[in-house]
Design a protein that fits this description.
By secondary structure, this protein is an alpha+beta fold. It has helices at about 5-35, 65-70, 80-105, 125-135, and strands at about 40, 50-55, 60-65, 110-115. The structure holds zinc ion.
Length: about 140
């Protein structure tokens, strides 16, 4: 059984989510700075709401929370309410895919970065991804 009613739960989740987003976005900004990657805009008002966009290069960047977006890593093992989380993640995954396809149809490139990749020990992988995306035709 659920301890929180629906409204209360979504309130809690919203707080957790925005707090997480903030710190992961900060990490990505540090990554851009460290690698002298310029031209990004944050929270650019475009459909699909990417976390960052490079308008000139037409690149949309999303930082996906492992838990929320169903990354198969150790961040995603909730013990309670398995069914609830599974459904929620499935919805997010489906939406992520739709958004990616929407951008690609318009000729944009999409870079999706997992929250866990922003850890120091994984950051080299982000640079690889960035290079692969920004240099692809
Ligand atoms: Zn992950």
């Amino acid at each position: 059984m659920d301890v929180f009613d629906k409204a209360k739960r979504s309130d809690i989740m919203r707080k957790v989510k925005s707090k997480n987003n903030k710190s992961t976005e900060q990490k990505l900004i540090r990554f851009f700075n460290d690698n002298k990657i310029t031209g990004w805009r944050r929270n650019y008002p475009v459909k699909g709401r990417p976390d960052f966009v490079f308008v000139k290069e037409r690149i949309a960047v999303f930082v996906d929370g492992c838990f929320w977006h169903g990354h198969d890593c150790r961040n995603t093992k909730p013990s309670d309410n398995q069914e609830y989380w599974r459904k929620k993640r499935e919805r997010n995954i489906r939406r992520d895919k739709e958004v990616t396809e929407m951008f690609e149809r318009r000729g944009w490139k999409v870079l999706r970065i997992w929250e866990c990749e922003l850890k120091k020990k994984n950051i080299a992988a982000v640079l690889e991804k960035w290079r692969a995306t920004s240099q692809s035709e």
